[in-house]
Amino acid sequence: MPAYAVLGAQWGDEGKGKIVDVLARDMDIVARFSGGNNAGHTVVNDKGRFSVHLVPCGIFWPHTMNLIGNGVVVDPDVLLDEIDSLSGVGIDVAGRIIVSERAHLVMPYHVVLDDMAERARGDNPIGTTGKGIGPAYSDKAARTGVRAADLLDIEALLPRLDAILSHTNAIITKVYGGEAVSHEEIFEKCRDWSARLAQYIGPVEKIANQALAADQHVLLEGAQGVLLDLDHGTYPFVTSSNPTIGGASVGMGISPRHITQITGVFKAYSTRVGTGPMPTELEDETGETIRELAQEFGTTTGRPRRVGWFDSLAARYSTMINGYTSAVLTRLDVLDGFPSVQVCTGYIDEDGNEIQDFPGGVAALEKCRPVLEELPGWDTPTAGVRRLEDLPTNARAYVDRIQELIGCPIDVISTGPHRDETILVRPLIEA
After folding, report:
1. Bridge-based pairing state of the strands 340-348 and 270-272
2. What is the mean pLDDT of the chain?
3. CA 208 to CA 102: how far, in whole Å?
4. Are residues 250 and 375 in the same domain?
5. DSSP-assigned states of every residue in 299-360
6. Residue range 308-351, pLDDT digits in tens
7. Rounded Cα gap, residues 76 and 62, in angstroms
8. Which residue among the candidates 21, 41, 53, 232 is catalytic per the annotation?
9. Is pLDDT at 384 greater than 80 in this prediction?
10. Given 147, 166, 197, which residue is the final one in a domain?
11. Scanning 63, 225, 258, 429, which has its CA 20 to 30 A from the CA of 347?
């Protein structure tokens, strides 16, 4: 069987968690391939409401194996807390979560460095979550990272870690004027992690490739969104990994030829957390109404999300980069009751010209103003609707217009947070 990828198609927070949870019913493996616990997926099912940050959303189906790939940076404390929390509500995790030996660890000093670097930026912050993700990826690139496999040979790790800590403490104390972290406390952390996490560490890449060779169903779970991609997002206001389809192959150690279906998850409007350009942002009563109706607050940080109308230029760019074979539209029900809705169909650049391409430079994007097309709203609720023919006429027209603008078929429409509140226009998974 091919691998199926589910990606965030905007700035993250599109509702991927629900979609992965729905599709995981038919999966043998669900695999997370990028990011860290700076991403949060919310899942609502018969067991309750859950927010997971590292464990893949397939964990809620008892038959599904859940892999954390080499492209993910793993905070061991967060992972252990999630495992304990899931076990505490009766979810069987034994033998169902495997972390790649090659996945890098988010160390306590990464969190310290993240906080200090963000505060040092003063009035020009990136808007990081403060979870240590960026510094962990920086150490990975600098060849000073610690991998999950290192916990399996703690005596070999400690001398190398001693050298890493000496260098890191020099940065903390001499560059940022902070207090050095304790070598012994970090060593003790690693010993504890070694004892508790060893059973969860394994050859994820081999497991994924063997599953594909055996015609099993593998779902690749994206984190964050394409417009936060380190290479293709609104740099420098981006994350530190690659949430795009290229990141799926690299971050799971599988060949691109295995990935034959790529689903982009779009919200029916736009949101983003943190700073950076957002041409369709609504800084008015309408934006505040949408935020409150949808409870647009970050799963990881609790920060209020910025809200704007659907941006078709950003969406088309996302589609071009990833080659979506299908799209999912979420949170349509949030727009119920608005007298009209709008969608961005172009930008006016700084010279007053209308453009149809998403600018690659952040300075140019910040100067763009949206060209908005107004469509009539709908009074009949879409919340909980499960059949396409039951959508109000104007809601259906809005979905059709977005589909036309992004150039990709919308095969699933989410009309609420629960698994069952879903319109399946066309199956995403091959029989």
Report:
1. unpaired
2. 94
3. 14
4. yes
5. TTT-PBPEEE-EEHHHHHHHHHHHT-SEEEEE-GGGGTT-SEEEEEEEEE-TTS-EE-S--S
6. 999 999 999 999 999 999 999 999 999 999 999 999 999 999 99
7. 23
8. 41
9. yes
10. 197
11. 225
Dihedral sign from CA coordinates of 345, 372, 8, 106: positive
Question: Is 41 an active-site residue?
Answer: yes
Cα 393 to Cα 263: distance, rounded to the nearest angstrom: 25
Q: What is the pLDDT of residues 134-171, one digit of tens each?
A: 999 999 999 999 999 999 999 999 999 999 999 999 99
Count of positions (residues) in the chain? 431
Query: Alpha carbon of 99 to those of 69, 251, 385: distances in Å?
Result: 6, 12, 38
The pTM (predicted TM-score) of the whole model is 0.93
Q: Cα angle at 419 between 414 and 422, to 5 degrees?
A: 30
Give tens-digit pLDDT for 183-207: 999 999 999 999 999 999 999 999 9
Q: Do 305 and 368 lie in a common domain? A: yes
Amino acid identity at 271: T
Do both 348 and 384 map to the same domain?
Answer: yes
Boundary residue ending a domain (197, 225, 248) = 197
- Same domain membership, residue 282 and residue 244: yes
Domains in the chain, number: 2
